[in-house]
Design a protein that fits this description.
The chain is α/β, with parallel strands linked by helices and about 325 residues long. Helix content is about 45%, strand content about 20%. It folds into 3 domains: about 180 residues, Methylesterase CheB, C-terminal domain (Rossmann fold, 3-Layer(aba) Sandwich); about 40 residues, no CATH class; about 80 residues. The two termini are about 30 Å apart.
Length: about 325
């Protein structure tokens, strides 16, 4: 692994998911009070309601924490936290919030922040992948590596959930793998002050929005290969493309997934479909049973018997579906184990 040079980074982007609050607290606690670089954080959180993560991280160490707002200047020695249900990006010394398509099923997504840091700052950016499940952050960390930035990953043995760190280590081969506190101390050695800020620009100008709409509505082929799959978010067609050796699935409107996150999303859709089928069959059985009783009361014996048989058939089909659900759940638990 390459040895990062002291004083080479002015922007640090941190990404975490399950178990990430503890990892973030441990890392932030090691940053010195005069830490000169800007810190931006994405944690996978619920899309609704306020977040107290800025206050949690501020209490964990010696740096102030704020919730990022669109157009806010990225400041050295401050922790900028992505708000719920918005992607966080960095560009031109400012922070941008974006309510665009979910990436890997998340908004905010780690890959979005990391990729923006790679594009904006290249070798002056550092990306850190912490505890979490699945693999959000791997593609973004690879973008930082390709841009010449510093790539750091929490030691899987130190993480409460090791899937995100293990994915990043396997695919990216980061500059350093260490415990969360060790990463914090290393960042303290690598950090430098931000350059003078460029004038902030307004997010989502009409021109930018027109470009996005034109891309989605274009008659030109979408990038990548047609898969025959459908998007778990919008049911649109899915294309497969590869960037930096990492395959990505994306739909026309911009929802994108790693192969791992797409498989999980499909699993969730299968389970929803099975429960919907079960509910429909049970409701069908109840309806036919009620119709049979009504006809029986009116003396229509033959019709009542036919409806009773249809009700029983629906019950038998429901038994089959419930058995499939039970076996499906068992197989998924075995896969996780």
């Amino acid at each position: 692994m390459a040895q990062p040079e002291n004083g080479r980074i002015h922007t640090v982007v941190l990404g975490a998911s399950a178990g990430g609050i503890e990892a973030l607290r441990q890392l932030i606690a090691e940053l010195p009070a005069d830490f000169p670089a800007a810190v931006c954080v994405v944690l996978h959180i619920a899309p609704h309601g306020p977040t107290v993560l800025p206050q949690i991280l501020a209490r964990a160490g010696r740096l102030p924490g704020v919730q990022a707002t669109d157009g806010m200047a990225a400041q050295g020695g401050r922790i900028h936290v992505a708000p719920p249900d918005c992607h966080l990006l960095v560009a031109d010394g400012t922070l941008r919030l974006d309510h665009g398509p979910r990436v890997n099923g998340h908004r905010p997504a780690i890959d979005v922040l990391f990729t923006s840091a790679a594009d904006a700052y290249g070798p002056s950016a550092a990306g850190v992948v912490l505890s979490g499940v699945l693999d959000d952050g791997t593609a973004g960390l690879m973008a930082i590596k390709r841009a010449g930035g510093v790539t750091l990953v929490q030691d899987p043995e130190d993480a409460l959930y090791d899937m995100m760190p293990r994915s990043a280590i396997e695919i990216v081969t980061p500059d350093r793998v260490a415990t969360a506190p060790e990463l914090g101390r290393l960042l303290g050695e690598l950090a430098s002050s931000l350059p003078p800020l460029d004038p902030p620009h307004v997010s989502h100008s009409p021109t930018e929005l027109l470009v996005e709409v034109d891309r989605g509505s274009s008659d030109d082929p979408q990038p990548g290969d047609v898969t025959g799959l459908t998007c778990p978010e919008c049911n649109g067609a899915i294309w497969l493309a590869e960037t930096d050796g990492i395959p990505r699935l994306a739909c026309r409107t911009g929802h994108s997934f790693s192969l791992e996150t797409f498989a999980v999303s499909q699993t969730e859709r299968v389970e929803v479909a099975l429960w919907t089928a079960l509910r429909t069959l049970e409701e069908r059985a109840a309806l036919y049973r009620r119709m049979a009783a009504r006809h029986r009361g009116q003396g229509n014996t033959r019709t009542a018997e036919r409806l009773a048989l249809q009700s029983e058939s629906a019950v038998q089909h429901a038994f089959v579906i419930r058995d499939v659900i039970d076996r499906f759940d068992d197989e998924e638990e075995e896969g996780v184990a």
